[in-house]
Amino acid sequence: MTTEQKSEKKRASKMTGATSTPTLHTELLIDGQLVIGEGLAEPIINPASGETLVTIAEASIEQVEAAVAAAHRAFTHWSRTTPAQRATALLAIANAIEKRADQLSRLEALNCGKPLHLARQDDIPATADVFRFFAGAVRCQQGQLAGEYVPGHTSLVRRDPVGVVASIAPWNYPLMMAAWKIAPALAAGNTLIFKPSEHTPLSILALAPALAEILPPGVINILCGGGDSVGSQLVGHPRVRMVSLTGDIVTGQKILQTAARTLKRTHLELGGKAPVIVCNDADIDAVVQGVRTHGYYNAGQDCTAACRIYAQAGIHDRLVSELGEAVASLRFARKRDQDNEIPPLISSRQRDRVASFVERALGQPHIERVTGAAVHSGAGFYYQPTLLAGCKQQDEIVQREVFGPVVTVTRFDDLAQAVDWANDSEYGLASSVWTQNLDKAMQVAARLQYGCTWINTHFMLASEMPHGGLKRSGYGKDLSSDSLQDYSVVRHIMARHGTDF
Ligand code: NAD
Q1: Beta partners for 33?
Q2: What's the predicted TM-score (pTM) here?
Q3: pLDDT digits over 61-90, tens only?
Q4: How far lies 52's CA from each of 26, 66, 225, in Å?
Q5: Mutate to test the pocket of ligand 1, among 123, 168, 193 (most ligand atoms within 8 A of CB)
């Protein structure tokens, strides 16, 4: 290759972002400016190798103040833009994501250890779609009719933005969770401060320059930092009017306590422990394939993961045996990206947490290890995909969210018992029922106390459909036009006029 060809290749790969090691952006976005954090510097780790990728300094107290002040100033203008203007910006963000698809998927792969081909094929298109959905949804909202509800007075209802929103995200799908939080908040006319997880800021920081070009200064600010530092400063700030969190239940509880002081609106998407009810008449091949995929996708670091199976006695043994084989065949930690199906856990701490859940479970004489149940011996924070059978309803492993590649099986005889057990949980995010009898499926779906129930599938999301929990899984909806309502307030305008005309 000539020097000219080489530099042309370099230029082309720069344009498409198709370099093997993407640029690691470390600058925060405050008031339209990309700036280095002035707080504590934290290492960002590649969980597939355990190596430090880069060090990023979190926002200082003064930088958090500056970001909130910028969002507060920007609200005056942004809240008065039309839905069409905001839709144009959201569509531009979707285009910017697609243009950088290679770079962003590489960053997700590096920062989370995800197989690159999955990040490229799943995370990036889903993220762009969320921005496109909200661009359309904000232009065709519906509401109550204006009219004379009191003689001589015309009433109408407005939906207005809440104000400055602090959006706080977890690490399992960094860019997609950012889209779930940013798109509806901006579409509804709010300004915001987005805080990614301290573990996974790389993809949103890479998008920050594009966001700074598309949006007026201050409309979106991106601050890195820990929950106890930057997170809690945002939650306590009097000028922040709403806090939106996707995270752990305990984090949600802490945020509620702090937010109560300033009576903020909160939107909480918390943990899950999805029950999977498998009836005797289910298509077992479909169940095996479904749980192999949706119980272990992203190494089970998914709040909707199909992790708590209730298997009816007639199919229990066959299901355990066939699922055990299928789970043992899951591929990970291989050299060639295409060969991998699941990533490692996000940190050694998370891996050890998963390992200790399994260790305690196997300390119970009635619980049987079908497959897995060990830390992977090579580099990275991998844990073997694990299936445990013989679990009982009151076992810790059945009751608590593990957030790892661990699925339990509990046998049942009577369907009513399975529904009761499924509902006997602090969580209420997602569930599924597997049967070839639609009549039965609809009855079970009606009785399950979960934000979502799938029939003969699991973990399928659509931008148009609401996603969110009941009970301690939180409240408020992500995705769908329901979330536009969560990020806006209803106001009544009433005009007095004569009645004699
Ligand atoms: P986490 O609660 O530890 O952290 C989430 C975010 O909250 C991070 O950005 C963190 O810095 C911040 N935070 C922590 N303490 C805070 C505080 N006191 N004040 C303000 N911010 C604070 O959760 P995680 O470990 O990153 O993610 C895993 C959890 O997220 C799991 O429980 C999972 O079920 C849940 N989750 C839920 C959904 C959903 O849609 N319901 C989706 C994905 C993940």
Answers
A1: 30
A2: 0.94
A3: 999 999 999 999 999 999 999 999 999 999
A4: 14, 29, 17
A5: 168
